[in-house]
Amino acid sequence: MAAITLSTVHQAARVGGQVKTVLAVFREMLDAFVSNRMRRAAAEAEYARSLQPLGTSSPLMSAQ
Q1: 52 close to 58: Cβ distance less than 8 angstroms
Q2: Distance, C-alpha 28 to centroid of its chain
Q3: 55 or 43: which carries more pLDDT confidence?
Q4: What letter would DSSP give residue 52?
Q5: pTM for the model
Q6: Is 64 domain-assigned?
Q7: Buried b (16+ CB within 10 A) or exposed e, 32-45
Q8: pLDDT at residue 43 above 90?
């Protein structure tokens, strides 16, 4: 009976470690995705800003 209990505790600890690993990998993937999207949005905004003639306000700023 004690062997079954210890085995179950060991399996639970191993599964808990695997869940933490999966969550850490998922978080890294999500962080990379969000970071990539933010970089792309910043690059697009910079490009749009460079196309705008000097001295004109952006449509977003005039709407506010």
Answers
A1: yes
A2: 7
A3: 43
A4: S
A5: 0.55
A6: no
A7: eeeeeeeeeeeeee
A8: yes
